[in-house]
Amino acid sequence: MEHHRIGWIDRISNRLRRRGWRETLFVISVWIKGVDGVLEIFGGAALLSTTPGFIVWVVQLLTQDEIAEDPRDLVANYLRRAAARVSFSSEHFMSLYLFIHGALKIVLVWALLRRVRPAYPVAIVAFAGFIGYQLYRYTWKPGIGLLVFSAVDAMVIGLIYLEYRALQAQHRLS
To answer: Which of 25, 151, 170, 174 ranks highest by number of CB atoms within 10 Å?
Structure first.
């Protein structure tokens, strides 16, 4: 069993050594996007299977110790106010958004990892669209998370672009 595990680690280690930093970062960032897409689909399913009242109850349960300790706790009060504003229609919009967003990410990740060349420009445009929407949301309701997601998406776009250029150069040589 131990020998099998070491062999698996050695194979991954050798594969990463053969790749340059650009390609390694590209693969890691794309895999992270894929995991994020799967989590978004699960999140969309979870939202569809709950009610706004249940969401309020869970948030109150999770924040009750913080509120008892400090009734003015910023994070706990923010979460409680946000949960109280969830409506049936906003819940369905968010679940639909998460499903579409997650499914698109999964399809793009699959195509990028398979080196499907037309997927690179499509992924760049799609992720740029995600950034545009996140920045629009930021102007409507500021939050540091939206800026962080936008910065990560911008880095992923840069890595996709660099990998696409390298793939095109490799194709021209062959």
So the answer is: 25
Angle value at C-alpha 38, between 32 and 42, nearest 5 degrees: 140
Whole-number Å distance between alpha carbons of 98 and 133: 13
- Asked if residue 110 lies in contact with residue 118, where contact means CB atoms within 8 angstroms, the answer is no
Rg of the Cα trace of the chain?
A: 21
Residue 140: how many other CB atoms lie within 10 Å? 8
CB atoms within 10 A of CB 101: 19
Helix 88-113 vs helix 52-69: crossing angle, to nearest 10: 90
pLDDT for the residue numbered 93: 81
Kindly report, residue by residue over 78-99, the tens digit of the pLDDT.
888 887 877 767 777 888 888 9
Q: Residue 91 and residue 54: Cα distance in Å, rounded?
A: 12
CA distance 94 to 27: 28
Hey, what are 158's tokens? 């840069």
37 near 105, Cβ under 8 Å?
yes
Joined tokens for residue 5: 């595990």
Cα angle at 162 between 160 and 168, to 5 degrees?
Answer: 100
